[in-house]
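Dear U.,

For the methods section draft, I wanted the exact inputs and outputs in one place so we can describe them consistently. I've listed the two proteins in the order they'll appear in the manuscript figures. Please don't edit the token lines directly; just add comments below if something needs changing.

First protein:
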Amino acid sequence: MSHRRRPLLALLAVVPLAALTACSADTVEAAPAEQVDVPAAEAGGPLDLADVCPATVVLQQDWQPEAEHGAMYALVGSDHTVDTDTKSVTGSLVAQGVDTGVDVEVRPGGPNVNFQPVPSLMYLDDSILLGAVTTDAQITALADNPVVTVASQLTTSPQIVMWDPDSHGGATTIEQAAAGGDPLVSSGDVFPRLLESQGLITADQIDLSYEGTPQRFVSDPSIMQQGFATAEPYIYENEIPQWGKPVGYQLLAEVGYTVYPEALTVRADKLEENADCLAKLVPIMQQSQIDYLEDPDATNALIVDLVEQYQTGWTYSEGVADFSVQAQKDLGIVTDDPASGVFGQIDPDRVAEIVDTFGPILVDAGQIESADIDPATLFTNEFIDGSISMGS
């Protein structure tokens, strides 16, 4: 399963209070709710959701607010209100400059939901329409909480293995960094097992003691560590003064971690009844990701503001948000589907490969009982608008 960046107070273990204050100095203060200042969608048109979707479209993320979730937060209108108790933001659902006639509520995951997996949350609360679920987590939940992927927004996983180049002979790949036998520190064993199966690391290099803080990496640069290409390279160089230099890293996607990260999913038993809504909402989500990356500033300001208001110990600066957007574009984290050229479309061959690769790993890890999974049950492209692409 994918494991997010840092648990509560992670940076507090190593970064002085003054440095943390500097990181959030650009935080945008919450503005009072206002009337959304956009025209209404054309009645009955593709952006009018009033007659087909719930009055409030609830979107569930798998972690704290961050730029990787920009497509969801970009839909929240300027009339939004923030619930600091439930940690959610609600406003008019505004897409492509028009009011769609419904509201949108975006909920963060992680510590805000006691680290419950998104599929579990979706079955506990059937008001959640779309949940962000990475494919290996989707497979893990299949027996008890099956969900169906309806679109991809991050095309490639941003997860990385990172290391100190000076301590690893200038290594530029995981294989080179691991050659000396140093431990790979992570919080979960799925991707380490993948690397072991490929002969890139040995079993005795797997260290599952990662707590989400930078303290061990800073004090023992001989280790390798999990991370995200959209955050850690910037944070370690710019926001952790005890480190303050570049890290080496390689995307796990380059060595077989082919999962769809944080894909948009619907409860399997709710797919048919929400079909009319999804036929309009999924294309909106496709376009929202593209529009966000083209003009991220307002959404990034909202994300940073929400982190400040939620007060969970999670820190997130505008610098990290801006870096994430650029990394998503530069590293191909967000691209059109290579097989079809359509943004957000799911590739059946890729899903079959994911099942073949990760099914046995998840069985060995004791997370599922059987790898006998029909890939076709994990996704549908029926709601995808084939005309939407990043180049159009």
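Second protein (the one for the lower panel):
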Amino acid sequence: MRGVKDCVPTLLGYLSIGFAAGIIEKTAGLSIMEIGLLSILVYAGSAQFIFAGMVSTGGSLVGIITTVFFINLRHLLMSAALSPYFRQLSSVKNAMIGVLLTDETFGVASSEVARSGRLNNSWMQGLNLTAYFNWIAANLAGAYLGVWITDPEKFGLDFALPAMFIGLLVLQIMHRKKYVLDVVVGLTAILVGVVCGFFISKSVGVIAATIVAASVGTVIERWR
């Protein structure tokens, strides 16, 4: 129950982003059942937005699968960061935690680690499942109401996902109060992301920026 309660502050973000995702998926031509399956099986906001965009522009199946795969590779990094706190659990329980881990639940879990120095399995399940069911409901709500919204960009819904991440980033920076370090890490991520995106691809740029910037931040923290 404490995991459920700790998830409540993120629910508004899930509702707004999930609602926007449902609308965009509907306008891309997906059925209610397809949107439901997408939110149940993929369960990744950025991937679902990109999926809907590529479907609406006639993207190839291979291209869609590859893009979604690279976009979701960040979950490997998030899972690796939390895995030391669940080493005592079985592989099945670890898998149950991992498949429902999102950017937002990772952020809440990171805050819990900073506060108490540990994570509890039942707390994590409460956190993850609350976010999961809320996301599915928000997607379906957007899908049902999406028939009356034919132009999501008119209402700024295409910016819903970046807006949420910006909000999470600002809150994290304010909580950490390590402004110089965060600025250096942020500039590093931007530089690497832009360079890789220009010369290789945007998907690779996201992963490269994450790895390089996180490494730079870790090195600076250990030297200080």
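Candidate sentences for the figure legend, describing the second protein: The chain has eleven helices and no strands. The two ends are 39 Å apart (CA to CA).

Thanks,
Y.
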